[in-house]
Amino acid sequence: MELKVLYFGMIAEVTGCNEEIILLEPNSNVDQLENLLKDKYQNLQHLSFKVAIDKEISANDTLLNPNNEIALLPPFSGG
Fold it and tell me: What are the structural domain ranges in the chain?
């Protein structure tokens, strides 16, 4: 399945883009997506980030579907 993945902050710097289409097997989850991206972009292995699905931080076992809005978010602080 095709997934559109958005990158922000230092994640975008590491990947060299703000978004891209990633191909994953149907019924893949967040953990599988993270592993694929860390293999593709070795420097992601050294960064802390969260995966948001439809604007909510998601657990690693969350199943993905092509209609999801997927974003990799670097650490951030609020006030």
Answer: 2-73
CA-nearest of 29, 5, 26, 33 to 17 is 5
Is 26 exposed, middle or buried, given 0-12, 13-18 or 19+ CB atoms closer than 10 A? exposed
Q: Which CATH class is domain 2-73?
A: alpha beta
Q: Of the candidates 37, 42, 28, which has an alpha carbon nearest to the alpha carbon of residue 6? A: 37
Per-residue pLDDT at 36 exceeds 60? yes
Pairing of strands 70-73, 2-7: parallel
Stated pTM of the model: 0.91
Distance CA 15, CA 29 (A): 20
Segment 20-30, tens digit of pLDDT: 999 999 999 99
